[in-house]
Design goal:
alpha+beta, Phosphatase 2c, domain 1, 5-stranded antiparallel β-sheet, about 35% helix, globular
Length: about 250
């Protein structure tokens, strides 16, 4: 049985304390029930361009139908990633000095009965349900691969000097492999999409504490940004919160 998905959402980004420019980008599109965080890489203006291309591609490719099925949602999410990847690759071909540019990206779409989440890189998506925070994504990074192989511990990974080396990104190769995560939502579910500027600077326990406090979403956005900055603010930080109302 199809259910109406009433949601409220809010996003916020900040340059942080050490960077001179912000290469992150986000989208909050309640009508299209689509939300994303993209974190640019490549230095200079290139990372900012890559994340912006991804965000603008998503905004153009949205399905606005109120009767969107899971199959439709999966197809749309995959198309956004593939289209953005091709456009970033084309930009690099026409602007060789931007070679190596790309972005990580998490894109959440809520369809009639559940959600579809696309994921590439080390930006993350979490879901809080009944006060418990669960990470829905797995980092595509060198240290995560080493953790999975049992070569280093999760604690060592948090401070590893190569923790920001990612193994998958949008725009780096012609062929793109996207993680597609599917699930159901329940009333009261709260989704957090964020760049690694938050997760590198703050523990999941401290993030959970803020998400539980019941403040308006915009206030919790600001509190999460300040949490990252109080932890050092070494990178741009972007957070998007999406709450399922009924």
């Amino acid at each position: 049985m199809k259910t109406a998905c009433k949601i409220t959402a809010s996003g916020l980004t900040d340059v942080g304390l050490r960077r001179s420019s912000n290469e992150d980008s986000f989208l909050v599109h309640e009508e299209g029930r689509c939300f994303l965080v993209a974190d640019g890489m490549g230095g200079a203006a290139a990372g900012e361009i890559a994340s912006r291309i991804f965000t603008e591609t998503a905004a153009r490719c949205l399905l606005l139908s109120k009767d969107c099925s899971e199959t439709d949602s999966v197809a749309m999410v995959k198309a956004i990633y593939q289209t953005a990847n091709a456009q970033i690759r084309e930009h690099v071909r026409s602007t060789p000095e931007h070679k190596g540019m790309g972005c990580t990206a998490d894109l959440l779409h809520l369809h009639d009965t559940g959600f579809v989440l696309g994921h590439i890189g080390d930006s993350r998506t979490y879901r809080m349900r009944q006060g418990k925070l669960i990470r829905l994504t797995r980092d595509h990074s060198l240290v995560q691969d080493q953790v999975d192989q049992g070569l280093i511990s999760r604690e060592d990974a948090k401070t590893h000097r190569l923790r920001n080396v990612i193994s998958r990104a949008v725009g780096v190769k012609d062929e793109l492999e996207v993680d597609i995560i599917r699930g159901r939502y329940l009333p009261g579910d709260l989704f957090l999409l964020c760049s690694d500027g938050l997760t590198d600077m703050a523990s999941e326990e401290s993030v959970t504490h803020i998400l539980r406090n019941g403040e308006p979403l915009r206030t919790r956005n600001s509190q999460l940004i300040e949490l990252a900055k109080s932890g050092g603010g070494r990178d741009n930080v972007t957070v998007v919160l999406v709450e399922v109302m009924i």
